[in-house]
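Following up on my earlier thread - several people asked me to post the actual chain instead of describing it. Fair enough. Here it is, all 520 residues.
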Amino acid sequence: MHVFKKSFSSSQSAFRLSLVAGLMLLSGCASLDVKKETTEKTEALRKGPETKPQRNMTNFSQGLRCMDNMMIFYGVKDVSVLVEDLVDNTKKVNAGTRDMLISATSDMTRRSRAIRLIAHGQDMGNATSFMANAATPNAAPASGSATQAYSVMPQYDIRGSISQLDEGLIQNQNESGINIAGFGIGHAKTAHSSILGLDLNMISMKDLAIIPGVTARNSVIIYKEGDGYDGELEYKKFGVSFGMTLAKSEGQTQALRNLVELATVELFGKLLKLPYWQCLGASDEHESVKNEIADWFYAMTAQSELVPFVQKQLRQRGYYQGVTDGSVNPAFLAAVQQSRRDLNLPAETTVDLPYFSALLNSTKVATANAAPTTSSAPKQPIKVQITHKKPTAIYKPNEPVNLTISVNQDAHLYCYIQDETHKIQRFFPNRFTKDSFIKAGQNLEVPGKMGFQFMANTKNVQENIACFASEKDVWGQLPASIQGTDFEYLSIGSIEQIHTLFKKIGDTRLGENQFHVKFK
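Reply from S.P.:
Thanks for posting it. Predicted structure:
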């Protein structure tokens, strides 16, 4: 018998034997451990996480709080908005976009309570169906009936969608390995990027038309590495970059939440003409910010909205106490001149783009004696008169109630109704007439052309209407219990309590009057 022999070097033989032994050992361990590891992980998933739930903090949480404070300073109140179902047009992101928007808006109005967000319906016909329901004649403010939600028309509607998801836009793969005598070990690392986009627009409920320029169109770049979803997010706005590190499968949904919160800040900032870029850390010197301010200025000028806007801001800051109807009166010109001086601008009476930009980006307020008075007449008690358009003040169930309210001198008016359930709502000022100021002798028709109705209740229970008038705008001094949101029940329990809280303001010339809706 012949024996075939081949010689090997001792080092090569030892390496091969070690490599084979190692591979056999790894293979044996894998076959033994794979079932055990899978069972343990499955059991962990079945039980769920053992850690306590935590609030989801994003890079825009501080921006939402900043917007809340900004709405207080700029005097924003009684903004009513309907929100559509925000669908996923990519069919790839399974997330509750609309719920994220609702949560973001709630966080953005914790203190100001300036925005009333209405969630209604499950299809794109929300606005149309809401308008049909709102057209039903209901008392507004309404009693606690099932139709109360439809008693007052919202001003705006939000629609939009997840409009873009470009996956694997850029893909990179690096490989490395070693091969010795036919045996090798290798390693590979992959990375790719995707773009997720969200578009939101604001619609006017008057005619369902898109409001020009009030849109949020943003996207985020998602970087992913390895076999999982570990990576980073990158947002850019006004030259400011926002980043966030992700772990495992958080990528798309967490990226979307950030996009929604960014869009919430931007959308309401544009709608309300607030310097929202400050809440995103951007400078007012950035070219995009300058262009946006200029767009607002020229659009508001063309629509005759500029002067009323400036009047409101000057009154909010204590420079002006007159009406915000857009009339260029001497008191307004004096207020412009004083505020320009405080903003280090030429002391003129011109409302130009540099002044509009400086006023918008500033938090300057007037000194104690800066605001000019609207009248030089001797001060006397303010009298409020409430009259009705019926021969008698006796009403039938479901009969319309139309009133005329007037004051004997320029004043700021605040009116409330206590309905048949003894609950109280504020109905003036409101989302339709935001300015509380009325001139002496002016007849305020209620409801008049405002988008609500007063209807006598069906229980034959007396309802009480009370109006309070002050020389100055005291809205910022009123407690939240009597501010509230228009046409929503307040936490206050009686008209007498409202009277007491107004008296605490210290206006000795405070005027008030009541009207009672009576039945036979």
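The two ends are 130 Å apart (CA to CA). That should answer part of your original question.
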